[in-house]
């Protein structure tokens, strides 16, 4: 089965207004920037997005946010985006914050068909308000529900036409669990190989979780640096 799409715009063309998206990446590392840009051009709005963070003001999910396309963010970190803060304080954006491990596990659970699970993270904090708790072996736990999405957008270093994906180093981050949680998962890849070329032991995410694969053109592989620290002598 050849899952490749001819372009990013065609791969996201059927994402409707009001859809829920699971989006991979951590900061600006491993984000599906090509698919995000295509979705910005496509015009879908009122999106609910599950992602570790919302990019920065002028890149990544920050582009959709600045265009007023996102109505709700479910994240674990939101500190690098001034527009995010402005919209939240103005009541224009709904925000659900989760501990980072809870966010990852909830996406993974959604992909595996596990409806809910107990975790100690967040017990005794505002995160626990309104949630069921249970004492197990003398320790209190919160019941957290799985997260699923209508669509997932992820980025991988390498993929084949069957949707098997390989991620590079820390760019793997939330991409596998986001992909697992999507009912329709679209993966942008930097290198496309033929089925059988990937060593089975090399594959980080099997193609059963991926429905569409898009090759990122070389001139669109812009990998932004979120924070750059410079020493006093000008060296990075």
From TrEMBL:
Annotated Pfam families: CoA_trans
Molecular function via GO: transferase activity
Q: Which UniProt keywords apply?
A: Transferase
Gene3D superfamilies, per the entry: Glutaconate Coenzyme A-transferase (3.40.1080.10)
| InterPro entries noted in UniProt | 3-oxoacid_CoA-transf_A (IPR012792), CoA_trans_fam_I (IPR004165), NagB/RpiA_transferase-like (IPR037171)
Q: SUPFAM superfamilies in the record, alphabetically?
A: NagB/RpiA/CoA transferase-like
Where does the chain cross the membrane?
none
SMART domains the UniProt entry points to: CoA_trans (SM00882)
Give the signal peptide, or none: none
Keyword Transferase among UniProt keywords: yes
This chain's protein is named: CoA transferase subunit A
Q: What is the native source organism of this protein? A: Catenulispora yoronensis
Taxonomic lineage is: Bacteria, Bacillati, Actinomycetota, Actinomycetes, Catenulisporales
């Amino acid at each position: 089965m050849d899952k490749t799409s001819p372009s990013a715009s065609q791969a996201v063309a059927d994402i409707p207004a009001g859809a829920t998206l699971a989006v991979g990446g951590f900061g600006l590392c491993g984000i599906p920037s090509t698919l995000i840009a295509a979705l910005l051009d496509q015009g879908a709005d009122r999106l609910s997005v599950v992602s570790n963070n919302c990019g920065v003001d002028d890149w990544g999910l920050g582009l959709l946010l600045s265009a007023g396309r996102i109505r709700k963010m479910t994240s674990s970190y939101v500190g690098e985006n001034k527009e995010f803060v402005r919209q939240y304080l103005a009541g224009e954006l709904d925000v659900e914050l989760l501990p980072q491990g809870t966010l990852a596990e909830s996406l993974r659970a959604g992909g595996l068909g596990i409806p809910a699970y107990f975790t100690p993270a967040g017990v005794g904090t505002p995160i626990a308000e309104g949630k069921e708790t249970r004492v197990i072996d003398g320790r209190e736990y919160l019941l957290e529900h799985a997260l699923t999405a209508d669509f997932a957008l992820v980025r991988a270093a390498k993929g084949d036409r069957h949707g098997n994906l390989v991620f590079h180093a820390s760019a793997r981050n939330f991409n596998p669990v986001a992909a697992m949680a999507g009912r329709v998962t679209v993966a942008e890849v930097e290198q496309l190989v033929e089925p059988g070329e990937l060593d089975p032991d090399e594959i980080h995410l099997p193609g059963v979780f991926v429905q569409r694969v898009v090759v990122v053109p070389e001139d669109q592989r812009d990998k932004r640096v979120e924070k750059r620290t410079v020493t006093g002598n000008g060296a990075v």
